[in-house]
Amino acid sequence: MASYSNYGAKFIDVTAPGGDYAENEKISDLCLTTGMGGYTYTQGTSVAAPKVSATAALILCKDKTLKPKEVAKRIYKTCKKLEGENSDKYYGKGMVNVFNALSN
Description:
Elements lengths: L30 E5 L2 E5 L2 H18 L5 H11 L8 H5 L6 H6 L1
Antiparallel strand pairs: 1-2
Helix pairs in contact: 1-2
């Protein structure tokens, strides 16, 4: 979980990688994305949210007849459950998993 993450029981629906920056910055803790005319490593919810949106878009590309609640249900159902105490509080249904969402 990143240092800037929001969390709380019944507050988080799903989790997506957003990277985290600390004084001892390690590239492996950041997310590779496009921007500023090329690729860059960055962090934040502005990186995580598009991953969930893209998952929803790909699900709809596969089945255009799904309603929004059905897309959300598929995302929830196919998340990778993250281990740990209070995992629902911190990660909701788990980490968005595009492969699983498109395989169902």
